[in-house]
Amino acid sequence: MAAVRVLRRAAAAARLRGAGPGPGPHRAASGARPPSVPERIEEKRRAALLGGGQGRIDAQHKRGKLTARERILLLLDPDSFDEYDMFVEHRCSDFGMDSSKNKYPGDSVVTGRGRINGRLAYVFSQDFTVFGGSLSGAHAQKICKVMDQAAMVGAPVIGLNDSGGARIQEGVESLAGYADIFLRNVLCSGVVPQISLIMGPCAGGAVYSPALTDFTFMVKDTSYLFITGPDVVKSVTNEDVTQEQLGGAKTHTTVSGVAHRAFENDIDALLNLREFFNYLPLSNRDPAPVCECHDPSDRLVPELDTVVPTESTKAYDMLDIIHSIADEREFFEIMPSYARNIVVGFARMNGRTVGIVGNQPKVASGCLDINSSVKGARFVRFCDAFNIPLITFVDVPGFLPGTAQEYGGIIRHGAKLLFAFAEATVPKITVITRKGAVQIIFRGKEADAEAEYVDKFANPFPAAMRGFVDDIIQPSTTRLRICHDLDVLASKTQSSPWKKHANIPL
Amino acid sequence: MGIKTVAIHSDVDANAVHVKMADEAVCVGPAPTSKSYLNMDAIMEVIKKTRAQAVHPGYGFLSENKEFARRLASEGVTFIGPDTHAIQAMGDKIESKLLAKNAKVNTIPGFDGVVKDADEAVRIAREIGYPVMIKASAGGGGKGMRIAWDDEETREGFRFSSQEAASSFGDDRLLIEKFIDNPRHIEIQVLADKHGNALWLNERECSIQRRNQKVVEEAPSTFLDPETRRAMGEQAVALAKAVKYSSAGTVEFLVDSSKNFYFLEMNTRLQVEHPVTECITGLDLVQEMIRVAKGYPLRHKQADIPINGWAVECRVYAEDPYKSFGLPSIGKLSQYQEPLHVPSVRVDSGIQQGSDISIYYDPMISKLITYGSNRAEALKRMEEALDNYVIRGVAHNISLLREVIIHPRFVQGDISTKFLPEIYPDGFKGHNLTDLERRELLATAASLYVAEQLRSQQFLGTQRIPVAKSKRSTWELSVRLGDGIYPVAVSKDGSSFSVEVDGMKLNVTSEWNLASPLLSVTIDGTQRTIQRLSRNASGDTSIQFLGTVRVMSLRSDTGLMLLEDVQGCFCLRSSQLLAYKLQILTKVAAELSKYMPEKAAEDTSSILRSPMPGAVVAVSVKPGDTVSEGQEICVIEAMKMQNSMTAAKTGKVKAVHCKAGDTVGEGDLLVELE
Fold first, then answer.
1. Contact yes or no for A66 and B457 at CB 8 A
2. Chain A residues near residue B515 by CB distance under 8 angstroms
3. pLDDT value of position B613
4. ipTM value
5. Nearest-5° Cα angle at A385, A381 to A390
6. Cα–Cα separations (whole angstroms), residue B519 to B101, B500, B543
7. Mind listing the pLDDT tens digit for each residue in B75-100?
8. Contacts of B447 (CB under 8 A, 6+ apart)
9. CB nearest to B460's CB, from A78, A276, A292
10. With a CB-CB cutoff of 8 Å, which residues 298-337 of chain B face chain A?
11. Option in A5, A295, A336 nearest B558 (CB)
12. Low complexity bias: where (chain A) (predicted)?
């Protein structure tokens, strides 16, 4: 059985130093003697590794899902997981919960720290095999502990969510647990990156923890996020809707914008998360990571000379530009299926992580609307919070006109994008690929926001002559120029006036 | 030659290579050829405006158009090609054959003219002797050609061809002639001046064809002995002289297994495959054409024309060779690098990185020519050149070309025009890996994976929290390739990897430059150039190995995306289209992957998707219609070819997503059945 083998590996990894010899063959024979402390430790550990038991593990597998521990095994480097609170049990005594058959060492979440490509990460992984992963006071306490540690040490928190919701038997204790987690989500926000991967149900108040984190990823077909499920929806609004329609990965990555990306299955999601992690700094105290890069920073990109059509009305794919400029054509796109008129995501330039924002002429002419403004603004703020330089590719006809947009508050939402860019102090490099009807030019070296109307790209002189754009460059030299500028801007320092916090137009 | 040049181009070709190279460039119209490259009025206008003195028509479009040549002549502009008379004479199948007969050129026994009825067709066929070929005289190439092996097939062929002759060409004449079994297509390059001198510049063997289009050409032919060559050359020259031919031209022959050769047709222009002749003779044919057009006499005597070494040309097309040996593909060349670093390689191309391969023109990417002191050397270089050719963003036929040139029958010179359908009766399926090659592929892919994993831990600069480097020296992996899952163990040893596959140890060495499109790998001493086309976080890797690669486009939730893929490599969402899959996982992940849910694959029998980009010519069904299996549903035209799309099963039409006149992309949904 692969599962059992995998668990054994985890056991080896989690074993405390100096915990004494493991269970020997003599143990079974000495039945009368009460188990020694090392034996009891070993027994609890074995029980913890089995979570809700083999039956429930099998059921979890049948649903096409991995167990909490298997997920950690795939997410972290081999043998790097150090588990916390394996012996914590829930404290509920109502509804017969205090009977020993209702106690599971570690309760319904596995927590600890480990390494992803050698770099530190804190992890909690909800265990659906124990009371459906429901959140008890103890469960919340375990999560809070890793979050506190992560904030103190300065390392990201990754939550693997797979929980039926509040532990109904615990009532307010459970609800208070959510409040504790929410508070920490907020306190950690902007301090360490927080990533949520939804790998099963996540409903009711529980959804607000992922919603408070920086990134929410989902697993297609096996994960759901909603405030109220289809049954409640039916009884309140009389709508007929399935779980998948209401809160599946497709809904949240294309319609609601709640999730940032969806993956095919658990393995695909966890391996992608490892890759994603490499783009992130560990905390707001660390610079954007620089990876070893084989792609020459002075590489010319000849296709850029022809990619933008000469007719200003003809569309092209901004992703073509991004791929051709980025190191090794790699771009980790965030929210690829939502508000597609703006493209955001991470790439590397000469090894260094950058955040890329681009108008997408291929979709709605790349205009800005409510959804794309919010999508762009949130991404820009993440990058700024975590010292990730921003590269912006501009080709925008302006904001989308119409009553739907005006009534929806395009003024308020559009302001978020302006706010986020203006507030950002990280290096900012803007490349205007064709036109900026409302051209927002931020130059890293001065970082002053300027707005200038330029009627078309065919005539970049008005902006260039006034110094609003620094230079007019040959498209094929874009990569070279950006890499060069980033090197110079690496030492950029800029501070904002003292404030408690700014008041972004929410 | 110091001649200033003017390029003409269509809208979409404004950035084409020929436009950049010319001294001046003028746009002659929008993309469709009828409005640009075939638009004589516009072209004449440009000629007047730029005061061009001569026009080289290239090898497509108006190169064999007598009207164009006539109009140029009336304006006093030199047409760099033969006289109108020769173009006209050779453009007509029947007239050219008569001329050839009179010039004592061997012709295929047959009849050409108006055939009264099916009985007469049968009588003629019996006279000639079966098998016979029947087609409309006016039809070009192999279009509408039918082969009859008995009386009944003759009647059927007559019926079909005469209808087609009347409807398509408005010309009732039919051609019935001896059908040559196992023929080779060997052509003689001729060069003639306006002073009655004519030379034959040896032959080109062009037997490797698909749908009567040449794919691989070489010069000289392995098949000809000096006597046959001379006989063919002399007849070709006789024909050229008979029509007072000037400029470069090509006399095509069919050659049977007993070296009997028969005149096929004469092309009154430069041929696509002319570079192989240039390589072995040392002549620059375009330069000679210009000289002849100017009225200069030829500079060479027949005795001066050598055969130096051997040259091979592969036509590199943007097409998917896995569909009927090549269905056109379109897209942007996201990466493009010609193998010019390989010695003795010539690449004639009109595109560059970033170019669009559009539906408007022939999907040829380039002509790849290699040259050597002998055939083996030329072929070896071709193999290397193909491996080092980087083409991304569109499907291409490198895999087919490479398979052809390494096929034992080709290497022995045992070929005919039926080579492809004979060797691949069920269609081309890519390279068949030998056990050794499979191990090499697995070892290379696994090494690449580990090199990538190791690099993922390389962070530059000082880290506030130190990076805990893995002390691991051995990686246990599980690689899925096709239906097989192979345990592969990789251990690092300096810059090389020791890889255990199938209980055998292979040593894989490379510089492991993970950004370069070409990766030179040495596997147990054998050097291979591989190309990694894509990878993703889940271990899916596509590698071009021994030429075998496949590019396909898929619909995804992010819209149309181009997914480059390898045959021999994976594609998660439409695996059925590919022969192999390659996915690399750690052993642990591979063990857990058995719990992952199978995602339901799309039922492809009830939906019809466009197999290629093109224009919808006709839709023959509407929602609610009942169609039977094999019934035509719609017709897609792409690159001048009409393709009939048929129903994969019997059923009722649920929805029609296209209408006549629509432009569709590869993979676009056309029709759904219930």
1. no
2. 293-296, 327-328
3. 74
4. 0.87
5. 60
6. 56, 21, 10
7. 899 999 998 888 988 988 778 888 99
8. B490, B497, B499, B508, B510, B512, B521
9. A292
10. 332-334
11. A336
12. 25-34
pLDDT of residue B142: 57
Contact A264 B465 (CB under 8 A): no
Residue B38 CA to residue B21 CA, distance in Å, equals 21
Q: Which tens digits make up the pLDDT trace of B415-443?
A: 999 999 999 998 887 788 889 988 999 99
Residue B456 has pLDDT above 60, yes or no: yes
d(CA B236, CA B238): 5
CA distance B304 to A290: 64
CB contact under 8 A, B538 and A267: yes
Which of B459, B467, B475, B564 would you mutate first to test chain A, the one with the most A CBs within 10 A? B459
The pLDDT value recorded for residue A8 is 45
Chain B residue with CA closest to A301: the answer is B353
CA distances to A66, A72, A76, A475, B431 from A3, rounded to whole Å, are: 9, 13, 17, 53, 38
- Report CB contact under 8 Å: A274, B537: yes
Determine the 3-state secondary structure of B83 from DSSP.
Answer: coil
Q: What is the pLDDT of residue A458?
A: 52
Least CB-CB distance to A302: which of B352, B539, B588?
Answer: B352
Q: Lowest mean pLDDT: which of A370-374, B342-346, B396-400, B547-551? A: B547-551
Q: In chain A, what residues touch B585 (CB-CB under 8 Å)?
A: 267
Q: Which residues of B are catalytic?
A: 265
Cβ distance of B514 and A2 shorter than 8 Å? no
Instruction: Give the position of tokens 């607000």.
Output: A208
pTM of the entire predicted model: 0.83
- What are A152-209's pLDDT values in tens digits? 999 999 999 999 999 989 989 999 999 999 999 999 999 999 999 999 999 988 999 9
Window B:508-567, CB contacts with A under 8 Å: 513-516, 536-539, 557-559
Please, what is the average pLDDT of chain B? 85
Q: What residues in A contact B599, CB-CB < 8 Å?
A: 221, 264
Angle at A356 between CA A353 and CA A358, to 5 degrees: 170
Nearest C-alpha of chain B: how many angstroms from A406?
27
Question: Phi and psi (nearest 5°) for B635?
Answer: -125, 130
Nearest chain A residue (CA) to B11: A310
Q: Which of A71-75, A433-437, B40-44, B82-86 has the highest mean pLDDT?
A: A71-75
A253/B557 Cβ within 8 A: yes
Residues in a beta bridge with B9: B27
CB atoms within 10 A of CB B170: 8
**Three-state SS for B652?**
strand
Query: Residue type at B212?
Result: N
CA-based nearest residue to B393, from A326, A333, A303, A357: A303
Distance (Å) from the alpha carbon of A294 to chain B's nearest alpha carbon: 5
Please tell me the distance in Å from A98's CA to the nearest CA on chain B. 33
Torsion angle (degrees, nearest 10) of CA B558, B560, B565, B567: 120
**Residues comprising chain B, all counted:** 674
Name the DSSP class of A329. G
- Measured over the CA atoms of residue B411, residue B417, residue B423 and residue B427, the dihedral's sign is positive
Closest chain B residue to A277 measured between Cα atoms?
B456
SS3 B240: helix
Residues A376 and A357: their CA atoms lie apart, in Å, by 7
H or E stretch covering B639: none
Please tell me which residue of chain B has the smallest CA distance to A1. B591
Nearest CB among A221, A289, A291 relative to B597 is that of A221
Q: Could you tell me if B545 and B530 are in contact, meaning their C-beta atoms sit under 8 angstroms apart?
A: yes
Is the Cβ pair A271, B539 closer than 8 Å?
yes
